[in-house]
Design a protein that fits this description.
alpha+beta; about 30% helix
């Protein structure tokens, strides 16, 4: 996924969440997370907040290689750990080529 393609998909997720009444923001990559294979990648691409709802940490993928390309088992595990510690829901948003965004909860992720 090109950086610009990924940024466009992240912005699309933010816009969709805002249309649904959420306060949503893109998160820039950070080096705060020091796990070996995810240093500098951050935990999620978007955070969404809404009064009365659990916060959402959203990882966004925009690739024809499928929703889990680049979303390794280690990254999925770490995202779930952080979401659990924060009382948040972890969600994968996949921008399918020439289609809309599909939101995949952890139960739809490979083990």
């Amino acid at each position: 996924m090109s950086k610009s393609k990924g940024t466009r998909a992240e912005n699309e997720v933010v816009a969709e969440m805002r249309e649904r009444g959420w306060t949503a923001f893109r998160l820039l990559p950070t080096t705060n997370d020091r796990d070996d294979d995810i240093v500098g990648s951050g935990i999620a691409d978007v955070v969404a907040l809404k009064a009365g709802s659990r916060p959402r940490l959203i990882e966004v993928k925009a690739t024809s290689r499928g929703p889990f390309a680049g979303f390794t088992p280690a990254r999925r595990k770490r995202m779930l750990e952080v979401a659990d510690a924060a009382g948040a829901d972890a969600i994968l948003a996949w921008k399918e080529p020439y289609q809309g965004i599909r939101y995949l909860p952890p139960k739809a992720w490979p083990k």
